[in-house]
Here is the input.
Amino acid sequence: MKLAVLDGDRAAIVIDEVVYDVTDHLPTRAGRYGGPWLPWLEEGGAIAQLQQIDLTACPQQPLSQVRLAVPLSRPGKIVAAPVNYLDHKVEMSEQKTIAEYGVFLKANTSVIGPGEEVVLPYTDKRTDQEGELAIVIGRTARHVDVDQALDYVFGYTGALDITVRSTEDRSTRKSFDTFTPLGPWIVTADEVGDPDNLSLRCWVDGELRQDTNTSELIFDVAELVAYASSVMTLHPGDVIATGTPAGVGALSDGSLVRLMIQNIGTLEVQTTARHAIAYADRPGARHDARVLQQG
Here is the structure.
């Protein structure tokens, strides 16, 4: 089942290219920030509840005629996996992988949805696309075993982990507003099938940059959920970005980024540099200059 969001925070189910507005059939309403599906997940929402909805009684439109919004506009937290593909380790000349680095957090205010714009912050620092499979947690998880971890997964979506190649910590370089596109919807785990055997491809301006299968993950989905839950409590609606394969590359003003994941769908966003500034003009840069002068 594909759970989408329409403009105006309306909850929708997408089946066979038809979008059914199920907002009035949910026991919850859209939260102040999290859209319609986050409160539903937090209240214990289950697929069985959705299967009982009479879709023939719901307003419906062809998918081609609707604009989809982000499926989770402000998750409680976004947990991210660094260096979780060996080919990306080689590409970035990394000495360590997720096994040594652990996970990191991205700001939940960095989330945008399909068709929105990624805002490039700097004119003179490379900003890259990183296509990733994202996990949506469905049950509170703390210290879960690997063999039970998938029971805590509600579904999956596509994610782009946009990244500035500068010297700051990962959480800074990856948390600018608009740096976490998610979508186009959440696909429930039962429909996705084996999350460790999905093809993933990412294009920038028509050029295929990333082409892999999630079978190449260092920490697979269950291991990643188990590991993250050993560090922090995972709540319904939390998102885990599983890491990116080789093929990351620079984005420029107006780049069209297209991520396609098997059994999930296609997420497209465009970039803009209309507000970009020189890296030396960023807040705090003058302090760096004074320190250098004093040294």
Remarks:
- The CA atoms of residues 245 and 290 lie 39 Å apart.
- Helices lie at 37-42, 47-51, 86-91, 98-101, 170-173, 189-192, 221-231, 285-294.
- The longest strand covers residues 180-188.
- DSSP finds eight helices and 20 strands in the chain.
